[in-house]
Amino acid sequence: MKARVYVTLKPGVLDPQGRAIQHALENLGFGGVEGVRQGKFIELELADGTPRESIDEMCRKLLANTVIENFKVEVA
Amino acid sequence: MKARVYVTLKPGVLDPQGRAIQHALENLGFGGVEGVRQGKFIELELADGTPRESIDEMCRKLLANTVIENFKVEVA
To answer: Name one Pfam family in it (chains A, B) (predicted).
Structure first.
């Protein structure tokens, strides 16, 4: 089975990487870019039947820093 | 308007970061982790009416390295 994990910075947490992307897009001539936030996208290939709680625990223990990041899990 | 961009390594491209995550999960005691691929997830806040082609161009010019990465755009 496959699981997709999306890790995003919590609102209010500064995102210097996102700012850098925003400035670079403006410098390339793209107008109307009002904000950019960069996160992580992790695809896990797991043994069939891995429980959802187990995936959430992977996120809390390793994949996301829950102090500053949110995560979302999609099981496909 | 919001656009979400998912950037993933093309199949066959080595992903040392994904391997490191896989080993770390195993060391934490999570079984059955058969593979991990790490990608990027970028949220763009754009002026309303920004055409889809313009977002694709941002990906090709800056957000993704199309030699080794694929990208997917979702407009919300």
So the answer is: PurS
Give the minimum alpha-carbon distance from A46 to chain B in angstroms, rounded to a whole number. Answer: 5
The radius of gyration of chain B from alpha carbons, rounded to an integer in Å, stands at: 16
Which residue ranges make up each domain of chain B?
Answer: 2-75
A40 and B42 in contact by Cβ < 8 A?
no
| ipTM value | 0.89
State in words which class domain A2-75 has: alpha beta
Cβ atoms of B62 and A24 within 8 Å: the answer is yes
Cα-Cα-Cα-Cα dihedral of A8, A10, A14, A20, to 10°? Answer: 20
